[in-house]
User: Which sequence fits this backbone?
């Protein structure tokens, strides 16, 4: 079955298998054949080869979860923030067909007709086909390990667990976590499984404040303020296609310089640290990187027109700043 | 499906030989996931299960079966028993079909563009050995529920030379085997390309021979990451150094028996080495001459000193020196 709209926001939905009735509004904490899961990501200028690579990972993970009985239905939602539709009708049909025999029940493709950034794009996909028990938020340059959902879902057995994060490969994230419980300060938006309760209680990503970076840190901290825990599961893997420069450092584009600096200032503001806003603004201005200067200007402009978010967590109960990091790191990125 | 980046060939461009053992499930999954996520699919994988029992072999087969068919149809598993690490690679080399062959242990994960990079350089300079850069990271053991897992404990570093230099490779460079892709003809007809008597660097001879025979092209990009246990124990460090020394002696002795056509750049390298050696000899001679002069001066002073001590005047004036010492001590105490 197919229904669809037209530009600027066109949604195509494929129901590729029957969904078990009556599961969508029931609370299903435990991984079981009754729980429903949505996998979602936002495309931006990706090639067909890259999109297919992503699809391959999703369908293997969905099939594995269904076969092992940890999940009853899987939905895939692709948002598209590109300037032109990346997936045409024929490719949509082909994707839907390929998902059909691999444990994915529904497929939604939503072309936004504008760049909504990471937070705005992901928000547009939440509940696109109705409420699911869990949502797996990921990046389009991720390749899911077949057993990733089987490893993530059991962690929700404990009632206060709100988000479970997978381990990233080839570059493991350096933020610290408790080796015994897996508890960690925040979860990466490249590989986080969120429960429906969290989405109900905490809401969506703050897309009005964050465009590209720190939307996940902010969402994690709000989740913790609401009383949920965040768990890192190293046995759950996602390959995130990051690459290194010849000297072993992460490669960053000009827009990454800009948005990460802007997000840092916004995080400090939103989590009641005006002292850090002041300190970082000065450091960014003195650093001599044009994108950083631009980020400070943008922040000041937002402040002047009162477009900054309401500060949270004045006691600093969840927010933790370690230099420019949002958790203590086990090691430096460069060695 | 006809997608850019997905190449269908009866003879794959690359054969990847991946060696694993008992108790390495966590490592094997990481390595396989990184191969499944490659941007170029023009390769096959042979998993060499080395000295594993029936249950582990079954688990490996099941694991492979959980990946998407686009990947799993290009992977097969073979069991091999006995011998050192080299045995597994030597056995697999006889049956692989690729134009190029690359070997890796299961502690290696590939970056997303590994195969794409090797292919690009092999096509631009056909027949040459392709060398890519390897990054390293230390890990420590960690329990993942019922898995024997690990976590990274240092950042990523790139300790191996940026460019391949033959003599440096022979004598010092410990670049791991995953940094080389061999053209098939370098391995054809060689009974045991990898040295089965060595515990480390078992590939060094075949790398050296292949480079001498076909030449080498440096891709310059970091395309694989080797994870190694964090070693602190001095005896482990000493053992590792001993093993490398043995590899070096074996390699030198084997290469010494060959009449070799020296690689490009050898004459100037030898000239530079000769010049550096002469310079070092001259400096050494200068230091030796200074040392002799200092020694002679010291001996002279020693003789004069002895002569004074044994002189009649020194012995006669002894009481005066005693009185003078007493006076000085009393004077200082009074002050």
Assistant:
């Amino acid at each position: 079955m197919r229904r669809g709209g037209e530009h600027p926001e066109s949604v195509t939905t494929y129901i590729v298998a029957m969904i078990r009735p009556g599961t969508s509004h029931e609370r299903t904490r435990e991984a079981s054949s009754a729980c429903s899961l949505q996998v979602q990501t936002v495309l931006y200028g990706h090639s067909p080869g890259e999109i297919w690579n992503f699809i391959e990972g999703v369908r293997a993970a969905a099939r594995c979860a269904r076969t092992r009985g940890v999940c009853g239905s899987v939905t895939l939602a692709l948002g598209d923030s590109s300037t032109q539709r990346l997936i045409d009708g024929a490719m949509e049909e082909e994707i839907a067909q390929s998902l059909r025999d691999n444990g994915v029940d529904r497929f939604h493709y939503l072309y936004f007709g504008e760049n909504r950034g990471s937070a705005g794009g992901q928000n547009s996909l939440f509940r696109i086909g109705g409420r699911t028990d869990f949502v797996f938020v990921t990046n389009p340059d991720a390749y899911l390990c077949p057993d990733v959902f089987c490893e993530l879902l059991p962690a929700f057995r404990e009632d206060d667990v709100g988000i479970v994060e997978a381990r990233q490969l080839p570059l493991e994230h350096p933020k610290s976590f408790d080796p015994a419980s897996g508890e960690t300060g925040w979860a990466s938006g490249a590989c986080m499984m969120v429960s429906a309760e969290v989405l109900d209680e905490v809401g969506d990503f703050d897309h009005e404040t964050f465009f590209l970076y720190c939307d996940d840190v902010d969402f994690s901290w709000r989740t913790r303020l609401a009383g949920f825990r965040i768990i890192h599961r190293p046995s759950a893997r996602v390959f995130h296609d990051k690459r290194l420069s010849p000297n072993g450092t992460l490669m960053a584009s000009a827009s990454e310089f800009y948005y990460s600096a802007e997000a840092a200032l916004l995080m400090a503001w939103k989590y009641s640290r005006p002292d850090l806003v002041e300190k970082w603004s000065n450091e960014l201005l003195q650093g001599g990187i044009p994108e950083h200067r631009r980020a400070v200007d943008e922040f000041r402009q937002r402040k002047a027109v009162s477009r900054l978010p309401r500060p949270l967590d004045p006691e600093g109960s969840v927010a933790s700043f370690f230099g420019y990091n949002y958790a203590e790191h086990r090691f430096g990125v460069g060695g | 499906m006809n997608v850019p980046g997905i190449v269908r060939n009866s003879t794959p461009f690359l054969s990847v030989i991946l060696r694993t053992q008992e108790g390495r499930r966590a490592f094997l999954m990481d390595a396989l996931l990184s191969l499944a996520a490659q941007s170029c699919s023009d390769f096959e994988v042979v998993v060499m299960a080395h000295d594993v029992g029936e249950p582990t072999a079954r688990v490996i087969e099941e694991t492979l079966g959980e990946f998407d068919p686009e990947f799993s149809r290009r992977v097969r598993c073979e069991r091999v028993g006995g011998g050192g690490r080299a045995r597994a690679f030597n056995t697999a080399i006889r049956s692989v079909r690729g134009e190029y062959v690359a070997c890796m242990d299961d502690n290696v994960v590939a970056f997303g563009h590994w195969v794409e990079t090797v292919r690009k350089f092999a096509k631009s300079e056909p027949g040459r050995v392709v060398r890519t850069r390897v990054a390293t990271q230390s890990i420590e053991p960690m329990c993942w529920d019922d898995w024997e897992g690990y976590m990274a404990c240092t950042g990523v570093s790139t300790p191996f030379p940026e460019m391949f230099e033959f003599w440096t490779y022979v004598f010092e460079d410990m670049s791991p085997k995953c940094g080389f892709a061999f053209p098939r003809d370098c391995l054809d007809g060689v009974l045991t390309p990898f040295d089965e008597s060595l515990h480390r660097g078992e590939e060094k001879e075949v790398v050296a021979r292949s480079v001498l025979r076909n030449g080498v092209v440096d891709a310059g990009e970091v395309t694989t990451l080797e994870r190694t246990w964090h070693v602190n124990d001095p005896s482990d460090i000493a053992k590792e150094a001993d093993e490398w020394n043995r590899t070096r002696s074996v390699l030198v002795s084997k290469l010494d028996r060959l009449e070799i056509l020296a690689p490009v750049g050898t004459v100037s390298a030898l000239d530079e080495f000769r010049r550096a050696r002469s310079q070092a000899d001259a400096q050494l001679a200068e230091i030796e001459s200074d040392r002799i002069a200092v020694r002679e001066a010291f001996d002279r002073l020693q003789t004069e000193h002895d002569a004074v001590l044994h002189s009649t005047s020194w012995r006669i004036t002894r009481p005066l020196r005693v009185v003078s010492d007493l006076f000085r001590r009393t004077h200082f105490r009074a002050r």
Observations:
- Chain B has a mean pLDDT of 91.
- Chain B touches chain A through 46 residues (CB under 8 Å).
- The beta strands of chain B are 14-20, 43-50, 75-80, 100-105, 108-110, 129-144, 147-152, 180-183, 216-229.
- The first strand of chain B starts at residue 14 and ends at 20.
